[in-house]
């Protein structure tokens, strides 16, 4: 059973790698982004999308921790109010 799970995991990782490779190869057009007066040099679209993905993967868990922490704080405040 453990071997089957390992094979399925390897297949999923290989499919994800192939999808990423296909995305990068299909999005080689150079673009420059401009936002609030700040502009980037021309780079392939895939670079910007990959950077956005990485930023989201770093920021998302942090925001989840903040939300969980605020939820606990609200529960503590409610418990003090009931006293």
UniProtKB/TrEMBL annotation:
* Keyword Membrane annotated: yes
Please list the residue ranges annotated as the Lipopolysaccharide assembly protein A domain.
Answer: 26-78
Pfam family membership, one: LapA_dom
Keyword Cell division recorded? no
Question: GO CC terms for this protein?
Answer: plasma membrane
Q: Which InterPro entries match?
A: LapA_dom (IPR010445)
- Which superkingdom, per the lineage? Bacteria
Keywords of this entry: Cell membrane, Membrane, Transmembrane, Transmembrane helix
What protein name is recorded for this chain? Lipopolysaccharide assembly protein A domain-containing protein
Q: Which organism is it from?
A: Pseudomonas mucidolens
């Amino acid at each position: 059973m453990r071997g089957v799970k390992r094979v399925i995991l390897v297949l999923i990782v290989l499919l994800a790698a192939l999808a990423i490779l296909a995305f990068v190869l299909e999005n080689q057009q150079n673009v420059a982004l401009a936002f609030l007066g700040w502009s980037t040099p021309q780079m392939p679209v895939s670079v910007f999308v990959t950077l956005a993905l990485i930023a989201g993967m770093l920021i998302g868990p942090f925001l989840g921790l903040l939300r969980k922490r605020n939820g606990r704080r609200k529960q503590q405040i409610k418990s003090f109010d009931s006293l």
